[in-house]
Design a protein that fits this description.
heterodimer, A: mainly alpha, 11 helices, B: alpha+beta, Coagulation Factor XIII, Chain A, domain 1, 2 domains, 6-stranded mixed β-sheet, 8 helices, 23% helix, 33% strand, globular
Chain lengths: 273, 424
């Protein structure tokens, strides 16, 4: 099932490219704000994270550590990728309803092109992020290095890939669900807003007391926490390893079940459009 | 081994009528209601299904072109969507060999913010052309559409005609093995339309198999030697195009007779029939020859003065003319009874094509409609030698009395004031 969907994506790669190109081009053609938006979103997220950490620091009487700022920076960008994929995929089928009712092509191309254009935005933000983090690594005072360079940095692409699978699987499911039930997208919007807090973007599970680990039940959280650990501490906290395994399984299930559901429902799309 | 490129095998397709829950906000309470044993109120969840296609089978050989015609709701677009794999049949199967391109709408996927050139690439890819072939044909496409001056402006600045021409031009340069066309040959001005028809002819010569769904019978006649007629989901005819068109018009005529007339206010017109000069009922209206429309007028209540209107439209809906009985000094029978009325049409110069004749009765004082025929008569005009917009014509009105006649009067144009009695 999954291999067939991937094969179809390859067969129709021209169409996939054309749709992704269209999405990206239209987004950036529109206004000066268009290209700025790619930087604006992460800056907004990071700034609000910093404000949050600052507030926590003031309340707890401790000073604001560079490590916590870097932690927030490094978690918000992947979170934005996740949110963009989920939000984009869930409305993608309806947004392209004109094509779906009139032309034949394997329907997974539509949400996948949303994923690709979210990845494009991500690549721009992440480049900026890498520059900033490198800058911090180079110029940070020795007593509180915000960043630790280690071989574990090579694990980052792997973790991002797992996050991508998780997002795509959920996105496929939501895309189909939204086509049949048009109010799914509102539920998704609300959940993404709360998700920001429940995915440990602004704080770590260690800061949440004895029951902090409950937040790790959200499969996105262990992934984001691992990213933070690698960049800020140089290694993944052993406590997190099983949770990472849990997230990986969740991602696998998401992509398998999501694509099966999508595939089964696909032939009904044009009728329920 | 047959040369059949398209094979449709006993295909059935059904759809749901009525409200289908399309949001969780509606579904969840409905589910709860059902679980707790409530019966849903009448207007909820009307899950009535109906068959849009019933047991449809046909074959098309390589290089042939098949027309598909039928009254509205016959299942033509459903068949089209099935063949282009947008829908799946409930029963039966079909096979298409070779690369398929389906034209259901010109400009599918066009985005207003992108330029014409960018949209060509997008649209071409959507229609199934490879990037390379689009690049190769870009110049030809721009040329065919005739918008080379504007090719680099966003298409939101284009007129709708330009968009349509661009869309058709991209589609015209596909090189499929099998082409499905659904009513897209009506875009653009007359010159562009001719270009399109020429292009279709070229395609046909090059051994492309074509299925052409249309309402424009003239185009079907030009492009398809064989035609399939669908009615209420079933195939009622498959063969020679002229015979198919006759069958199609028969279907429309049958629906005329079986039509439910709207409520009548004391007057009804029954059984309108088009007759030739000899008084015989015909379906084909011979151009340049006198003909008449005969019908019964049944008056059930005493009425004030009214007028009978005859609207002549082309089958495409263009209004040609109206004859009104009050203008011809026709004395509308106002006392209850049955009158047989003949409206004689002097030879009219009508172009070849299909026309619809619609009768209406309006009250003279208030202008309210007293009676209207829901299903007009459809008649074909043949033999005029004219292609293009139609008409001129005069008419005369007569009452031809039947059993309960009261008054017999013949009203002609003032220059020819002959009164004649005719009995039936």
């Amino acid at each position: 099932m999954l291999t067939r969907m991937i094969k179809e994506l390859y067969e129709y790669r021209d169409l996939l490219t054309a749709l992704t190109y269209r999405d990206i081009r239209v987004k950036y053609k529109q206004a000066v704000m268009g290209i700025m938006w790619v930087f604006f979103m992460p800056i907004l997220a990071i700034s609000s994270g910093i404000v949050f950490r600052l507030a926590m620091a003031i309340f707890s009487g401790k000073s604001l550590e560079l490590a916590s700022v870097v932690g927030v920076m490094v978690k918000s960008v992947p979170w934005l990728l996740f949110a963009a994929i989920i939000g984009g995929a869930s409305t993608s089928l309806i947004a392209n309803i004109g094509l779906i009712t009139k032309i034949y092509f394997p329907r997974q191309i539509v949400p996948v092109s949303g994923v690709l254009s979210a990845l494009f935005d991500f690549s721009i933000s992440v480049t900026g992020l890498i520059l900033m983090v490198t800058g911090i690594a180079l110029f940070a005072p020795a007593e509180s290095p915000g960043v630790v360079i280690s071989w574990n940095l090579l694990l980052l692409p792997v973790i991002l890939f797992i996050l991508l699978c998780l997002a795509t699987g959920i996105g496929l499911f939501l895309a189909a669900a939204n086509l049949f039930f048009r109010d799914v997208k509102y539920i998704v919007q609300v959940m993404l807003q709360f998700g920001l807090f429940f995915s440990l973007v602004f704080f770590t599970y260690t800061e949440l007391g004895n029951y902090g680990w409950v937040f790790l039940l959200n499969p996105v959280a262990p992934l984001l926490e691992s990213i933070r650990c690698i960049v800020v501490e140089g290694a993944i906290d052993p406590f997190l390893w099983p949770w990472l395994g849990y997230s990986t399984i969740a991602a696998l299930l998401a992509i398998l079940l999501g694509s099966i559901f999508f595939e089964k429902a696909e032939y009904l799309f044009a009728e329920y459009a | 081994m047959s040369d059949a490129v398209i094979q449709v095998d006993h295909v059935w397709k059904k759809f749901r009528k009525g409200e289908v829950h399309d949001s969780l906000r509606e579904l969840i309470p409905a589910l709860f209601k059902r679980m707790t044993g409530h019966k849903p109120p009448k207007n909820e969840l009307n899950k009535q299904e109906f068959w849009a296609l019933r047991d449809v089978s046909f074959e098309v050989n390589r290089g042939e072109s098949l027309g598909i015609i039928g009254p509205n709701g016959a299942g033509k677009s459903t068949m089209f969507k099935l063949l282009s794999r947008i829908l799946r049949p409930n029963r039966g199967s079909y096979q298409i060999q070779g690369r398929l391109s389906a034209l259901i709408e010109v400009g599918a996927g066009f985005h207003p913010d992108l330029t014409g050139r960018e949209n060509i690439a997008l649209n071409g890819t959507i229609l199934g052309m490879s990037c390379k072939s689009i690049k190769d044909r870009e110049e030809a496409i721009i040329d065919f559409a005739g918008i080379s001056d504007f090719i680099d402006t966003p298409i939101k600045r284009y007129s709708s005609g330009m968009v349509a021409r661009l869309g058709f031009s991209v589609a015209a340069h596909m090189e499929p093995d099998v082409l499905l066309v659904d009513e897209v040959l009506s875009v653009g001005d007359a010159r562009f339309r001719d270009k399109c028809i020429l292009h279709m002819h070229k395609l046909l010569k090059s051994n492309v198999t074509v299925i052409f769904v249309s309402h424009i019978l003239d185009q079907v006649r030009q492009l398809c030697p064989k035609t399939l007629v669908l009615d209420h989901g079933s195939v009622v005819f498959h063969g020679n195009t002229d015979q198919a068109i006759t069958k199609y018009l028969d279907l429309l005529a049958v629906s005329n007779e079986a039509s439910k007339e709207s409520e009548h206010h004391g007057i009804e017109i029954r059984q309108p029939v088009l007759c030739n000069a000899e008084g015989e009922p015909v379906l084909v209206w011979k151009a340049r020859q006198p003909s008449s429309l005969e019908f019964d007028v049944v008056v059930t209540q005493p009425l004030d003065d009214y007028t009978i209107l005859l609207n002549i439209n082309t089958i495409g809906g263009t209004h040609i003319g109206t004859a009104a009985s009050f203008r011809e000094k026709f004395e509308s029978p106002c006392k209850p009874g049955t009158y047989h009325v003949r409206f004689t049409l002097d030879p009219m110069i009508l172009a070849d094509g299909e026309y619809s004749l619609e009768l209406k009765v309006n009250d003279m004082a208030s202008g309210n409609c007293l009676w209207a025929n829901g299903h007009p008569i459809v008649a074909s005009v043949r033999g005029s030698g004219i292609v293009g917009p139609p008409i001129t014509g005069d008419g005369t009105w007569e009452i031809v009395p039947c059993t309960s006649e009261l008054a017999i009067a013949t009203f002609r144009k003032p220059e020819v004031a002959i009164i004649s009695h005719e009995t039936r």
